[in-house]
Amino acid sequence: MKTIRTSLGIGLLVFLSGCASGRVVTPGSSGEDAGTDASLDGDMGADGDTDTDSDTDSDTDSDTDSDTDTDTDSDTDSDTDSDTDTDSDTDSDTDSDTDSDTDTDTDSDGDAGNCTSGKIYYQNNFDSADGGLTSGVWSTGNNNSWAYGTPTSGPGSCHSGTGCWATNLAGPYANCEDSYIGMGLDLSDCTNSSTAVYLVYWHWFKFENDASTLYDGYSMVWSKNSGANWTQPNNSAFTSGAFNTSSVYASGSSCSSTPWVNGLRGWMDQNSTWEKVVVKIPNATATAQFAVRLIAGSDGTGNTDGVYIDDMCIVAGDSNLCP
To answer: Which 3 state secondary structure label does DSSP give 308?
Structure first.
């Protein structure tokens, strides 16, 4: 009995000693399980357990991080670079096409003839020659008084120098006047051009005025086909010295036929001073067969000084280049 008590006493002491050292596991506490397991593994120093945990952590972290980073970065960068290349191609094509078209159009316009501003196609002050103008009568049986030289009637002198044209340099024009002066000129440079072409000259005129009733006068006509057809400028084509009547009255009474000028827009009465005429020639009329005529006409009675013409010029672009 004593022996049993002694054994029990020894067992109790051993039990109490274990509780004091904390080595007794109490089930049911999961938070304490995790701490205990880690502490136990460490305390145990068991190679099997330690290796297993280390391999699992290392493989999982290394593989997952490496694959995710590598795939994501590589794909994203590659797509971005590809988009950048596409933008570059688009810019290149657009710039190239636009520049090429612009240059081509500009060159084409510049090559459409050589109707450059300031180019003078005809200029003559008539001081030393008649300027190549020709005169004639429109209707057979009527009269032509045009002459070239130095006037002694009308204004008494030319606009400049000593030579000019007039419907009689020394007296009145004829009754039944039906005459013209004119020329032909190649203006084909300007046919399809946007550059304006101007006819410029100076005139002095005085026609019959009988008690404020006007008779006789002169006009301007031009042609794009060497006179096969004649047309007239509108007043809007003039920048100086425009027509002063919508219908010249030269009925041709007592004449063999009605003068050409009758019924045309033109000039009647008088200006009594030299005046500059500036008129724009339509580009469609400015052909290789361009022709212009200044035509005078009168009826069969009553006449006076007529018209005088000087300093004629045809120029592209700037009419001020003509004196």
So the answer is: strand
Instruction: Please state whether beta strands 178-185 and 134-137 pair in parallel, antiparallel, or not at all (unpaired).
Output: antiparallel
**pTM (predicted TM-score):** 0.66
Task: Report the candidate in 21, 198, 64, 31 with the shortest Cα–Cα distance to residue 122.
Answer: 198
C-alpha to C-alpha distances, 173 to 136, 213, 293, 296, nearest whole angstrom: 14, 18, 18, 9
CA dist., res. 275 & res. 117, Å (int): 24
42 has pLDDT over 60: no
Cross-strand partners of 240: 278
Q: What pLDDT sits at residue 226?
A: 97
Amino acid making up residue 218: Y
Higher-confidence position of 74 and 236: 236
Q: Positive or negative CA dihedral for 21, 23, 24, 26? A: positive
CB 289 within 8 A of CB 168: no
Tokens of 133: 């103008």
Per-residue b/e over 111-124, b at no fewer than 16 CB within 10 Å?
eebebeeebebbeb
pLDDT, tens digit (0-9, with 9 covering 90-100), for 90-138: 333 333 333 333 333 333 333 356 999 999 999 999 999 999 999 999 9
Close Cβ partners of 119 (under 8 Å, ≥ 6 residues apart): 189, 315, 316, 317
